[in-house]
Q: What sequence folds into this?
């Protein structure tokens, strides 16, 4: 079998392209696959091989990584007709870095065990800008030996990787963090509109917010786009709605009430219904402006 430097990468979206690029830069022998043709071009030019399907990729790789949309994509690339479980040799390590539900992840874990394949859940904290600079944070759970095997892969693309448990722990932590990300933007939006309605210039409230006790790295990342009204998607409203659905679904199973998350989930629906589904979730501020009777600015 190929050594651990033979890595197969599935999913070349906003996050996958820069993350896979770091593996090439670090010297991994990389094979990539994306469902649709196009996004692989840059990586091919930089030296990656291209596989026509997850199965073709799995046959060549010692370590397989996926960075794909959601539960349905995870089921397709693992257990679909040309999924990796049809072709990966026993002893292969499969790492999924997407944000998916603990349930879907547990199904993959069971299938991986049947196939003799190691499985690490490794969702990431940090968006596209941090993926580009190789400074995302990885939250990993699964067998500790698999985590140790995966560490060189994580080191190539992340500033820090945490080992958080043997089962689905990483999925829960990732969802908990994203719930806070979504709600932080909701809070920022309400605060900005509230201040503006009171006569404060938007630039002024944003300047103060960035230097105040409530400032955080996330608040900092969103100040400039908010100032510029730049809603180009680093993480779309639709993606955030998906993550809130995962949070609320997982919470239902443990009878954990999440009243704030349930409310904010309704707001993502309103935004999607009003055409902001493919904009950055920061477009929440536009909903608050509309609800406040402010004059449309875009
Ligand atoms: N963007 C962020 O800031 C961010 C941050 C942290 C975590 N995440 C999570 O990371 C994951 C990827 O995010 P992203 O922003 O890179 O998403 P994205 O730009 O929408 O890319 C999604 C990728 O998944 C593939 N895909 C979707 N459905 C598929 C299927 N049924 N079979 C095979 N491939 C499929 C897409 O292929 P096609 O090109 O063919 O559509 C594409 O390569 C998501 O789970 C997201 O929640 C994102």
A:
């Amino acid at each position: 079998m190929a050594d651990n430097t033979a890595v197969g990468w599935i999913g070349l979206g906003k996050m996958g392209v820069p993350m896979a690029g770091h593996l090439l830069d670090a010297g991994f022998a990389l094979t990539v696959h994306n469902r649709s043709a196009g996004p692989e071009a840059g990586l091919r030019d930089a030296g990656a091989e291209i596989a026509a399907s997850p199965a073709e990729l799995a046959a060549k790789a010692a370590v397989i990584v996926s960075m794909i949309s959601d539960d349905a994509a995870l089921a397709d690339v693992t257990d679909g007709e040309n999924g990796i479980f049809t072709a990966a040799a026993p002893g292969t390590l499969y790492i999924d870095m997407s944000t998916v539900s603990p349930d879907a992840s547990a199904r993959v874990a069971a299938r991986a065990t049947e196939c003799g394949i190691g499985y690490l859940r490794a969702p990431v904290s940090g968006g596209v800008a941090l993926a580009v600079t190789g400074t995302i944070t990885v939250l990993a759970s699964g067998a500790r030996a698999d985590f140790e095997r995966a560490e060189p892969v994580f080191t190539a693309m992340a500033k820090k990787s945490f080992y958080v448990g043997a089962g689905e722990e990483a999925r829960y932590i990732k969802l908990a963090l994203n719930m806070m990300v979504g709600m932080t933007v909701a809070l920022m939006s309400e605060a900005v509109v509230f201040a503006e309605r009171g006569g404060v210039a938007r630039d002024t409230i944003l300047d103060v917010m960035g230097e105040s006790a409530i400032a955080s790295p996330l608040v900092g990342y969103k100040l400039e786009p908010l100032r510029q009204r730049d809603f180009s998607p680093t993480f779309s409203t639709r993606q955030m709605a998906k993550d809130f659905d995962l949070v609320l679904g997982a919470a239902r199973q443990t009878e954990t009430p999440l009243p704030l998350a349930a409310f904010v989930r309704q707001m993502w629906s309103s935004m999607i219904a009003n055409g902001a589904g493919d904009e950055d979730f920061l477009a929440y501020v536009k909903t608050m402006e509309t609800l406040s009777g402010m004059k449309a600015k875009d």
Summary: The pocket of NAP is lined by residues 11-16, 34-36, 39, 67-70, 72-73, 76-77, 98-99, 124, 127-128, 234-235, 239 (CB under 6 Å). Strands lie at 6-10, 29-33, 49-50, 63-66, 93-96, 118-121, 124-125, 136-141, 158-165. The domain at 172-291 is CATH 1.10.1040.10 (N-(1-d-carboxylethyl)-l-norvaline Dehydrogenase; domain 2). The CA atoms of residues 60 and 277 lie 37 Å apart.
